[in-house]
Every structure is written in structure tokens, then in C-alpha cells.
Amino acid sequence: MDSRPTIAEIDLAALRHNFDLVRRTVPAGCGMLAVVKADAYGHGFMDISRELEALGVTAFGVAFLAEGIQLRKSGIDRPVLILGGVYPGQERKCIGYNLSTALFSLDQARVLDEAAARLYRKAKVHVKIDTGMGRLGVAAADAPSFFRELRDLPHIELEGIISHFASADELDDEGRRYTDRQAAAFAEAVAAARSLGLSPRYVHIANSAAAFGMELPFCNLVRPGIVLYGALPSGDFEGRMALRPVMRLRSTVAMLKEVEPGTSISYARRYTSSERRLIASVPVGYADGYDRALTNRGEVLIRGERARVTGTVCMDWIMVDVTGIAGVRVGDDVTLLGCDSAGNCVRAEELAAWAGTIPYEIFCGISKRVPRVYLNASR
């Protein structure tokens, strides 16, 4: 083994648990489009996608064409939706690999229609309605005229209609009102399509947050993302979901040293000991995705106990204060994210709070130089 003892373990049994939790939560007959963009939020989307396909997921969501092609080349044959749409020149590959794409302009629709005609195929699209996210999509007020024009394009298959909630993870009154307004606008857009004789196979707006507890009877698909990987959509959901973290970022103690009072630790001397302390050096740093903002704030698990990051997070190293942890020695296991073998956890939500960010960024930030090791595969 030529690398360091720093790895990310991916527990596929935890993934199955979280998937089943979502499946039990959504209405009977409602499908699931698993969001596996950004390398399955840093978890490794090939292995994650294979496991989800074995679990019977309805479809997959990716960010752009290359991710969809990777899924197809790996043998995934479930529907795959390119959530960000295709760019000029990508239409033939999208159709050729039997990928579906989000659609949000008539110019885009006409180019897809022409490309599909040349291939003697149909282009599968999910029309994206902007109900209040303000990012991508046909304005909700323009939906009737858009669908009327789309209906005249013979090589376009309206596989779905899609929108995206902006505040479904905010459960205060203001957040709920905004989400309800978005849902109502989306329902009107879907009704407009149906009134024109269009019959989308999938209708979906619910992300991870909306999949838990929000009733959307006109939809038949949900798009879980962060919850599949074991993190809450926001702090408002604390105690509402019995999720299990899928990723465990772990390393080992590489060095132990006692330092005297007045000793500075790491760059810029942001920590100076006030008394004699026992400091452990651990081979992980911001180049691995352990955020520099965790300087003097982050906590890790060693022998089941918490140890505080001491001094500035380096590119390849952190130092932690293990004073008071009985029996600590070189080679001891260090859990930086996720749960240790005894079930003690440092959750992504905690790391995010310490770093001033969100769990999504914590997961996506774990770099490629950290090997992913997959545990408990179902096949």
C-alpha cells in the first residue's frame, strides 16, 4: 500500500437503510429519481448507482451529459435525467445514449427535435418550470404557450414536467408559504399541459426535504439526494428522520507529542497551549476536503471520545488535542466524518456548522485523492 491510511468508507448498508426510509415515507406508487450528480455527492456515483439500481430505483438524476454517459457505459439502463440540460452540440449524444434532458427553452426544443429526426428517434425531455427558484426553467405564467408550441414538435417526447423548490427545507411559516405557492404554480402548469392533451410520464418537484411530509397528489416521482447519503436537508428536520451516515472519513494517529505551556501549533500560531497538552498529528488536510475553516473548531473521534482540532488545518495534516483520552497511541483510528465502529458519530451537519457551510459542500468537498472503500454491497 503506497498511500496514507486516510480513506473514505462508503457503507452501502446505510445507503439501503436510507433508501428504504424514503420509500416507506412517500405515497404508494410514487417513484424515486435518485440524485447522483457530483459523483453521488462525493460518495462515488458508479458504486452508489449500481446499488440503487439493485434496490429498484425508478431513475437517476445527473448534472450534465458526461455523467449520464458514464452511467450508460457502466451498464445502468434505468432512465437517466440530465437535470442541467444539454448544451449546443450535445443533442445527438443525449439521444443516442437514451438519456432524458431537462428542457427550458423553445430554441433548445427545436434543436433537439431536429437532431432526433436525423436519428429517427425521439428526444425525451422533462420541461422545467420556474415556479420560484429563479435559476432555470420556463416561467410558470408562460407554461401554457410553451406546451402549445412543444406539442407541434413531432420528435419530442414529453417524458416529464419538473420544477424545484427553493425553500422546502425551511419549515417556518414564511418558508412553508413560499413552498406552497411554488407547488400551486407547478400544479397549474401541469394542468395546462394535460389540457392540451399532453401526458407526461413523470411529474416531479419534491426534493429530499419535500419528500418527507409534503403532500403533492399531482406528482408521481420524488428526487431524494442528500437524505440518501445520510444527512438532513436542514436543521429544521432534526429528529424527523432516522438517517444513517453513508460516508466515514477515517485516518490514524501518526505521531503523539507532549507540548509545554506556551507552545504554538501549526501555521500562523493560531493555537498556543496554556498548559501541558498531548497533541496527535493526523495525515489529513484541506487537500483532502477537510476544510481549513475547521481550524480550532473541528472535532474528531479517537477511542470513542471527541478531540478538538488544534491549530490551523494544513494541506496534508491536522493536529488534535488528545489530552485526557486514556490509552491513546500511534496507529489509533481517527474518525473525522461519520460513525466509528461503536456508533459514535461526527455528523456532516456538525462539520458544516463548524465550517460555516452546508452538508452538501462537506460531502462534495472530499477530494479524489481520498480512496473510497465500499462496504456491505448487496451483490
UniProtKB/TrEMBL annotation:
EC number assigned by the record: 5.1.1.1
CDD domains attached to this UniProt entry: PLPDE_III_AR
InterPro entries according to UniProt: Ala_racemase, Ala_racemase/Decarboxylase_C, Ala_racemase_C, Ala_racemase_N, Ala_racemase_pyridoxalP-BS, PLP-binding_barrel
Catalytic activity: L-alanine = D-alanine
Cofactors that this protein relies on: pyridoxal 5'-phosphate
GO cellular component: cytosol
Residue span(s) of domain Alanine racemase C-terminal: 246-375
GO molecular function (one): alanine racemase activity
GO terms of biological process kind: D-alanine biosynthetic process
Modified residues (N6-(pyridoxal phosphate)lysine): K37
Residues given in the record as substrate binding sites: R135, M315
Keywords annotated in UniProt: Isomerase, Pyridoxal phosphate
Active-site annotation: K37 (proton acceptor), Y267 (proton acceptor)
UniProt keyword Lyase present: no
This protein's pathway: Amino-acid biosynthesis; D-alanine biosynthesis; D-alanine from L-alanine: step 1/1
Listed Pfam families: Ala_racemase_C, Ala_racemase_N
Main enzyme class: isomerase
HAMAP family according to UniProt: Ala_racemase
Sequence similarity: Belongs to the alanine racemase family.
Function text: Catalyzes the interconversion of L-alanine and D-alanine. May also act on other amino acids.
Name listed for the protein in its UniProt record: Alanine racemase
Organism field: Geobacter pickeringii
